[in-house]
Amino acid sequence: MIENTREKVLLCIDNVAGFEVLQYLVQRPDADVVGAIVHPEKNATHLEQIVALCASKDIPVIEITAARSRFDELIAPLAPDFLVSIYFDYILDDRFIKLPAKDAVNLHPGYLPYNKGFYYYAWAVLDGTPAGVSIHRIVSEVDAGPVISQKLVSVAGTDTGDIIYDKHIAASVELFQLTWPSLVAGTYNVFRQLHGGTRKKISETNKMLEIDPHASYTARDLINILRVFSVAGGGGCVMQIDGKKYSIGIEFSEVVDNRNQLLGKRDNYLVW
């Protein structure tokens, strides 16, 4: 009788998506999480939940700077079958990429080859590129490895940034759960990214956040800029007016009665 094997998994995780993947894997009979590499506390999210769950399962938690500086001592002995990166913002060098016996994979919250880098959810709307999430093999060049699986994300015309972001989180976790059995079984395929795709620098996003009151925008372009950087209760864009800087965003609510379009009604409005 052949015993079921458990794949040794080294996680590199942050964010609620990383935490939920950790929750998923620790419950799987075919996975043995041997370690979790995390962000430094100053820029980590859901770190307390990750640490608490790992402590309950005797899984070592290693901060990325320690993982890099003490790789031979802390990381190499873990000897994982898979390295899995989920919403992890730090570049992994070749020591990490070559460590797993079977594969190193990353979940990128963009529909590769589009929207590599940060603010993927905003640029999918602003550039009119597909919104989605991808699992790909990790190579030395960031977000450039062959694709294993993908899932499109549906973005409505009234979705604001927080809604779009949350949709990508949910799709990321769902895609990983759908893909993991094929990783274990070794039945997955990889597909070359067909072209260079798109990548935006942080400086390009920062420039987009500055609304020029003297510039000309189409109504649709301005609405899209405002909405993709808006979150519940506030806006991410800023505008200089009469020497003062203001936060500016947008909210939507459906108009069910034309009489409610009178000035001052909170149906469709800009928040200054």
Q: Main traits of this protein?
A:
single chain; about 270 residues; alpha/beta; Rossmann fold; 2 domains; 7-stranded mixed beta sheet; 9 helices; 11 strands; about 30% helix; disordered C terminus
Q: Could you explain the architecture of this structure?
A:
It is a single chain. This protein is an alpha/beta fold and 272 residues long. The protein has two domains: 7-185, Rossmann fold, CATH 3.40.50.170; 202-271, no CATH class. The protein has nine helices and eleven strands. It has helices at 15-26, 47-56, 64-69, 71-75, 94-97, 120-127, 161-185, 202-209, 219-228; strands at 7-13, 31-38, 61-63, 82-86, 103-108, 132-137, 147-152, 210-211, 237-241, 244-252, 268-271. It has a seven-stranded mixed β-sheet with strand order 3-2-1-4-5-6-7. A four-stranded mixed β-sheet has the order 8-9-10-11. α1 packs parallel to α2 and α6 (120-127) packs antiparallel against α9 (219-228). The longest helix is centred in the middle third of the chain and has 25 residues, at 161-185. The chain is elongated. The relative contact order is 0.11.
Distance between the termini: 69 Å
Q: What's the alpha carbon Rg, rounded to whole Å?
A: 21 Å
- Name the assembly state: single chain
CATH architecture of the largest domain: 3-Layer(aba) Sandwich
Strand order in the largest sheet: 3-2-1-4-5-6-7
CATH top level of the largest domain? Alpha Beta
Would you kindly provide a brief summary of this structure?
With about 270 residues, this protein is an alpha/beta fold.
Write the layout of secondary structure elements.
Layout: E1 7-13, H1 15-26, E2 31-38, H2 47-56, E3 61-63, H3 64-69, H4 71-75, E4 82-86, H5 94-97, E5 103-108, H6 120-127, E6 132-137, E7 147-152, H7 161-185, H8 202-209, E8 210-211, H9 219-228, E9 237-241, E10 244-252, E11 268-271
Helix pairs in contact: 1-2, 1-7, 6-9
